[in-house]
Design a protein that fits this description.
binds magnesium ion, Rossmann fold, elongated, alpha/beta, binds adenosine-5'-diphosphate, 5-stranded parallel sheet
Length: 254
């Protein structure tokens, strides 16, 4: 190809924002010649490159936007120490049909049993699959909504939660909420209802949610929406964090 024509091609690709095609053009061209690919096959390879690279960039961006705590992948979760949760049921959720169907997941249990880990693990799978996910502690959610109330951005913040595919609300019930905070949380839950999946983790059994929300009515209404299409897991057991102190084999190893 004439150098000038080639330059034109590169500039055209730039204008069309086909950055990855620009990058793999030469390499793919050589491969196409060597393997005697048809024009269409060659074009398909270039398009594949662009699509794959864009997807990877998007997943990377969404991973950052999700604000997950570090680690906590599904592969790292040891189901042999946490036997109160059905491994198969979690693996089934990891197929993410629940996100597609706007269903919820509720993980209840005492501290350290892996609730946050499982919530994040499912969230990470969802990001890998291209979904928009946001992880927040309820405490953070409440504070952010208070700040938005103060600067007049409450509506748009509530909308931004609804526009997620999956919202993870960690640690419901660690701190009691006042009337405004309860109301905000209720708005988040009812806004998500049948639009966006929610995963909630809590150390408070359902019967006691009335004490977490400022009024039993809000608690009941919130619980109602949350549980309508929900996969509920009650986790039991000793805290994984204390494992090193109690397992003689592990403490000897240190
Ligand atoms: P919870 O949210 O129930 O209080 P976490 O999910 O935060 O507990 O778990 C506490 C710590 O122990 C985390 O670092 C988590 O990664 C780890 N952990 C808990 N359960 C398991 C498990 N079954 N396999 C591997 N790591 C676990
Ligand atoms: Mg937790």
């Amino acid at each position: 190809m004439e150098p000038q024509r080639y330059q034109q091609l590169l500039e055209g690709l730039k204008r069309l924002k086909l950055r990855h095609v620009r990058q793999t053009l030469e390499e793919r061209n050589e491969a196409a010649i060597a393997r005697q690919l048809s024009y269409l096959e060659y074009l398909a390879l270039l398009v594949d490159d662009e699509v794959a690279a864009r997807q990877a960039t998007q997943v990377q961006k969404r991973l950052q936007a999700a604000r997950f705590p570090s680690g906590m992948t599904l592969e790292e979760f040891d189901f042999t120490v946490q036997t109160s949760v059905n491994r198969q049921a979690i693996l089934d959720l990891a197929r993410l049909q629940f996100v597609e169907r706007h269903e919820n997941v509720v993980l209840v249990g005492p501290p350290g049993v892996g609730k946050t880990h499982l919530a994040v693990a499912l969230g990470r799978k969802a990001v890998d699959r291209g979904y928009r996910v946001l992880f927040l502690t309820v405490d953070r959610l409440v504070n952010d909504l208070y700040a938005s109330l103060a600067d007049g951005t409450l509506k748009s913040r509530l909308k931004s939660y609804q526009s997620q595919d999956l919202l993870i609300l960690d640690e419901l019930g660690y701190l009691p909420m006042d009337a405004t905070a309860s109301n905000h949380l209720f708005q988040v839950i009812s806004g998500a209802y049948e639009h966006c999946s929610v995963i909630v983790t809590s150390n408070v059994p359902f019967q006691e949610w009335g004490h977490v929300f400022a009024t039993p009515t809000l608690a009941a209404a919130g619980l109602d929406r949350l549980l309508h299409h929900a996969h509920v897991f009650s986790l039991r057991g000793e805290s994984y964090r204390l494992r090193w102190d109690t397992d003689p084999a592990l403490s000897q190893a240190t």
